[in-house]
Design a protein that fits this description.
Layout (H helix, E strand, L loop, with lengths): L2 E2 L15 H13 L4 E4 L2 E2 L7 H15 L7 E4 L2 E3 L20 E5 L7 H14 L2 E4 L11 H8 L4 E5 L6 H13 L3 E4 L12 H7 L2 H8 L1 H4 L3
Parallel strand pairs: 1-2, 2-4, 3-5, 5-6, 6-7, 7-8, 8-9
């Protein structure tokens, strides 16, 4: 079941879809490209949100607006959680794991690596027994040293890979290394709209081997509760 593990399709929640109409258009594009299951991962920034509870309420309202009319019927709720100082201490943070699974998607900030980032990740994993999925790990390349990146890849995290990485020479090399060295990776479109950041599964299906796509598609079942 071709699965999009990372997208910003829910209407009006973040810098992704701005309306129900845009969300439905994005989902229609995904379906045409063969996507059968979608994980909705709106941005969660703890410094912007009143609480996890309030975020979940807003997410549910956005989901309810498209649930019955979505062309794709297999849909799961999650979030893309920004790694910030103190994120592991935010009340109810574990509730942002992808529903029905032990997976929680976390995004490194676009800045130089600092040890506290790994500490926050570890604390969430250890406290709640969750499996960490690192959002678009290839985007860490400009900010991590080679040694820091190698240390990240040596963890047992699930590495989420954006489809567009296959169109970048440098990112493609890293993505292929991950695919060849582990079976813990998951593909996503990171789609935000229907134009410059539209669903792009045509890229992945041209560039990735079917067996790699199969591994990605099975990650949900592998880490289900």
């Amino acid at each position: 079941m071709l699965t999009d593990y990372h997208c910003h399709v829910l209407p009006g929640l973040d810098d992704g879809s701005d309306s129900v109409e845009t969300s439905l258009a994005m989902l229609g594009m995904m379906k045409e490209q063969g996507v059968e299951r979608v994980v909705f991962t709106p941005h969660f920034y703890s410094h912007r949100e009143r609480s996890v509870e309030r975020f979940i309420e807003k997410r549910q309202a956005a989901f309810d607006a498209i649930r019955e009319i979505s062309p794709i019927k297999e849909m799961l709720l999650g979030a893309e959680i920004a790694i910030e100082n103190g994120i592991s201490e935010v009340r109810d943070i574990e509730k942002l794991a992808i529903e029905g699974t032990k997976l929680i998607l976390m995004e490194f900030p676009y800045r130089s690596y600092q040890p506290w980032m790994s500490e926050e990740i570890y604390n969430i994993s250890a406290e709640y027994g969750l499996k960490i999925m690192i959002a678009h790990v290839h985007r860490c390349m400009p900010y991590f040293s080679r040694e820091e990146l190698e240390s990240l890849l040596a963890t047992k995290y699930v590495m989420q890979l954006n489809n567009e990485a296959f169109s970048s020479w440098s990112e493609k090399k890293l993505v292929k290394k991950i695919i060849e060295s582990t079976n813990r990776f998951a593909f996503g479109s990171d789609a935000h709209n229907t134009s410059e950041r539209k669903p792009n599964w045509d890229i992945l299906k041209k560039k990735a081997k079917p067996e790699a796509i199969d591994i990605s598609d099975g990650i949900i079942e592998r880490y289900s509760k």
